[in-house]
Design goal:
This protein is an all-alpha fold. The chain contains nine helices and no strands. Helix 1 packs across helix 5 and helix 3 runs parallel beside helix 6. The model has no long low-confidence stretch (mean pLDDT about 90).
Length: about 210
C-alpha cells in the first residue's frame, strides 16, 4: 500500500495538475492575511473556507491523474479496485493535510496577534476537518463513479457551491460557525468524523461502481 501511495503521489506531482489549486491557494491566502484578520480562531475561518474547495479539487486531481488505460493497468498490478481506491484516498488526504498545515502556519505567521499552542492545534484540526470534507466530496464523484472528467467537475463544483449558502446545515458550516465565534465546539469533532466517513464512503461507492 505504501508503494502504491508513493506511486500515485509521484504521478500527481509529475503531471503538475496540482499547480492550479496550489497557485489559487497561495494567492487567496495572501489576500486573506494581507491585513489583520481578527481574533485568533476567527482568523482561521477564511483559510478553512478555502481549504474545503481546495480539498475537493485535490481529490479530483488525485483520482484522475492517470488516464483510463493506465488506471486499468494499475488496478491489475495492485490487485483490484479496492486497493487502488484506498491508495487514492490516502494520497488525496495526505495532500489535503499538507495544505491544511500550510494554511494554519501561514495564519499564525502572518497575523500580528500572538497564538498559543492550543489555538494553533485547534486551527490545524479545523483545517484538517475541512480538508477531509473536501477530499470526500471530490472522491465521491470521481473515477470510477464518473468516468468522464467533465461530469466529475460539474458534480463536485455544484456540491461545493451549494455547501456555502446552506451554512450551519452542513458539517462544513459547523466548523466555520465555531471559528467565526472564536470558540471550539463538539460540532467540529463531529464534522471531522463525518469527513473521515465521507472519504471512506467514497472508496466503498467507487469499488461498487468499478
Amino acid at each position: 500500500m505504501i508503494s502504491l501511495v508513493r506511486y500515485l503521489a509521484a504521478d500527481v506531482l509529475r503531471g503538475q495538475r496540482y499547480l492550479a489549486p496550489l497557485l489559487i491557494f497561495f494567492g487567496v491566502l495572501g489576500m486573506l492575511f494581507a491585513y489583520d484578520p481578527g481574533p485568533q480562531l476567527s482568523a482561521f475561518a477564511g483559510s478553512a473556507a478555502l481549504i474545503y474547495p481546495i480539498g475537493a479539487w485535490l481529490g479530483v486531481v488525485v483520482a484522475t491523474s492517470e488516464d483510463q488505460v493506465r488506471r486499468e493497468i494499475t488496478v491489475v498490478s495492485a490487485g483490484g479496485w479496492s486497493r487502488v481506491l484506498t491508495a487514492v484516498a490516502v494520497t488525496a488526504v495526505l495532500f489535503g493535510l499538507a495544505f491544511a498545515a500550510v494554511a494554519t502556519v501561514w495564519a499564525v505567521v502572518a497575523s500580528p496577534r500572538p497564538y498559543t499552542a492550543g489555538e494553533f492545534f485547534v486551527g490545524l484540526g479545523a483545517h484538517t476537518v475541512c480538508a477531509l470534507l473536501g477530499v470526500g466530496v471530490g472522491l465521491m464523484f470521481a473515477r470510477p463513479v464518473f468516468e468522464a472528467v467533465g461530469r466529475t467537475v460539474l458534480a463536485v463544483f455544484s456540491i461545493v457551491v451549494l455547501t456555502y449558502p446552506l451554512g450551519r446545515a452542513t458539517p462544513f458550516g459547523w466548523v466555520l460557525d465555531a471559528l467565526g465565534h472564536n470558540q471550539v465546539t463538539p460540532s467540529v469533532l463531529w464534522a471531522g468524523l463525518i469527513g473521515a466517513a465521507l472519504v471512506a464512503g467514497a472508496v466503498v461507492v467507487g469499488v461498487r461502481r468499478a
